[in-house]
Each structure stands twice: as structure tokens, then as C-alpha cells.
């Protein structure tokens, strides 16, 4: 009997499994520049880490007074992002190793992301992570994106598991809040170091304040072993 018989693991994608934020930033910068907003900075981009693309663009329209529709802006940004993602998306090496350790134990795994279905598919296929996943959920497939729990609850439903038996890996404040709202334990790996002290991260079962620099597959695997719920 596996140590992990009652466990499922749900991964956020961007900034957690893969280092895609630079591509999202560049796609956003290009999109805004084409619509009369120059000099979109990385610091400005950081406020949207963990928020769905659609909700990000809706905020842009208000913040920058854009007249173009959300749908049209979404199409432009996704076009830029898909081109960049297909050219170069890096999986965090320790995350790939962690996925492989869990796969060897037969642990059901899913991705629940704020990105579009097309962007998720492009990344998972290009990085070959899709081979290890039983379910993939985009925020565009549920009523509300993070910090609402919808994407995580849908991932649990598709995996056929109880939310209480799921552990989420997340890099962003909205995702940590969503995991807590879904009744799931969370391993928090903050992408934006300055946000590590946010109260949402304080709800995590395990908080790695150093982000990806602090994460190791073996340590995370051993933590899961120690904290596995009895079956």
C-alpha cells in the first residue's frame, strides 16, 4: 500500500511548475504598447501575478482607460504569449523532479491555472508535463478565477477526490487564498519575494519564503510523507 493512497496533488502552472512570468510580462507589455500604453514595467506586472488573464485585462481596461474589448485584448495577448511560450518555457528542475517522484508513486495530479486553455496546453505539451497529469483546469472553464476556489474544486472533481485529500502547490497570493477556500492544504512557494509575508500565505500548511530557491523535490516529498492523512 502506498504512503499516498489518499493523496492528490494540484499544481498551479505559471510561476509554480514553469517560469512563465517573463513571457506573460512581455506579452502584456507588447499588448499594452500596441494600445497606447508605453513603459509597462515589471513592477506593474507583479501586481497581476496569480490573477487570471481575463481578470488582468479587465483591470487594464479600467486602469489605463482602454476602449478595446476584453475579448479583443485577450486574443492579442494570448497570441503574443503563445508565440513566446512555444519558443521558450522552462520547467523548474526541482518541480519536474517532484512531479516524477509523485508519478512513480501513482499519485493523481492536476494543473489548475488562471491561463487560457490554449496557453496551458501549449506549455504542458511543450514541456512534456502533460504525460503525468490526470486533469487540467483553466479559470476560463469555471465561474470565478482565483482567489475563488472554483478551479481547485473543479480539479478535485475531475480527479474524483475529496478536496480535503488534495495538496496544492502555489506561488501567488490569490492561489493560496483559493486553496484555503477550497479546504485544501497548500505548499506556498512565493514568486514575488516581497509578498511572502502576506496573510494569505500564512494559511499555507508549508510556506517556503525563499520561493523556488528554497524548494527541493526531496524535501517536499518527505513533507508529504510525514503529513499524509491516515486512510
Question: Tags for this entry?
Answer:
231 residues, alpha/beta, six-stranded parallel β-sheet, 10 helices, 10% strand
What do you see in this structure?
This protein has 231 residues and is α/β, with parallel strands linked by helices. Strands 3-2-1-4-5-6 form a 6-stranded parallel sheet, with helices on both faces. It has helices at residues 21-34, 42-46, 53-64, 70-87, 93-104, 117-127, 150-159, 173-181, 199-202, 217-227, and strands at residues 8-11, 109-113, 135-138, 166-170, 185-188, 206-207. GO terms for molecular function: hydrolase activity. Keywords: Hydrolase. This is HAD family hydrolase.
Helix and strand layout, with pairings?
Elements: E1 8-11, H1 21-34, H2 42-46, H3 53-64, H4 70-87, H5 93-104, E2 109-113, H6 117-127, E3 135-138, H7 150-159, E4 166-170, H8 173-181, E5 185-188, H9 199-202, E6 206-207, H10 217-227
Parallel strand pairs: 1-2, 1-4, 2-3, 4-5, 5-6
What is the first-to-last residue Cα distance?
10 Å
The general outline is globular
Radius of gyration: 17 Å
| Backbone structural class | alpha/beta
Low-confidence runs (pLDDT<50, min 5 residues)? none
Helical content stands at: 40-55%
Percentage of residues in strands: 5-15%
Mean pLDDT: 94
Can I get a quick summary?
The chain has 231 residues and is α/β, with parallel strands linked by helices. It contains 10 helices and 6 strands, in the order βαααααβαβαβαβαβα. It is globular and about 55 Å long.
Amino acid at each position: 500500500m502506498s504512503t499516498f493512497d489518499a493523496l492528490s496533488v494540484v499544481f498551479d502552472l505559471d510561476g509554480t511548475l514553469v517560469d512563465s512570468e517573463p513571457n506573460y510580462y512581455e506579452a502584456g507589455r507588447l499588448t499594452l504598447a500596441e494600445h497606447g500604453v508605453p513603459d509597462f514595467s515589471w513592477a506593474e506586472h507583479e501586481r497581476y501575478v496569480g490573477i487570471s488573464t481575463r481578470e488582468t485585462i479587465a483591470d487594464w481596461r479600467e486602469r489605463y482607460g482602454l476602449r478595446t474589448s476584453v475579448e479583443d485584448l485577450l486574443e492579442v495577448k494570448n497570441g503574443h504569449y503563445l508565440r513566446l511560450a512555444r519558443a521558450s518555457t522552462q520547467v523548474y528542475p526541482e518541480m519536474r523532479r517532484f512531479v516524477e517522484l509523485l508519478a512513480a508513486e501513482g499519485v493523481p495530479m492536476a494543473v489548475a491555472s488562471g491561463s487560457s486553455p490554449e496557453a496551458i496546453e501549449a506549455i504542458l505539451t511543450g514541456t512534456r508535463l502533460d504525460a503525468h497529469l490526470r486533469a487540467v483546469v483553466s479559470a476560463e472553464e469555471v465561474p470565478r478565477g482565483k482567489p475563488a476556489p472554483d478551479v481547485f474544486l473543479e480539479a478535485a472533481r475531475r480527479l474524483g477526490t475529496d478536496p480535503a485529500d488534495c495538496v496544492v502547490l502555489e506561488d501567488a497570493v490569490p492561489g493560496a487564498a483559493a486553496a484555503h477556500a477550497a479546504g485544501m492544504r497548500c505548499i506556498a512557494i512565493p514568486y514575488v519575494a516581497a509578498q511572502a509575508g502576506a496573510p494569505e500565505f500564512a494559511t499555507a500548511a508549508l510556506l517556503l519564503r525563499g520561493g523556488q530557491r528554497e524548494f527541493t523535490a526531496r524535501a517536499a516529498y518527505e513533507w508529504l510523507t510525514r503529513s499524509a492523512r491516515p486512510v
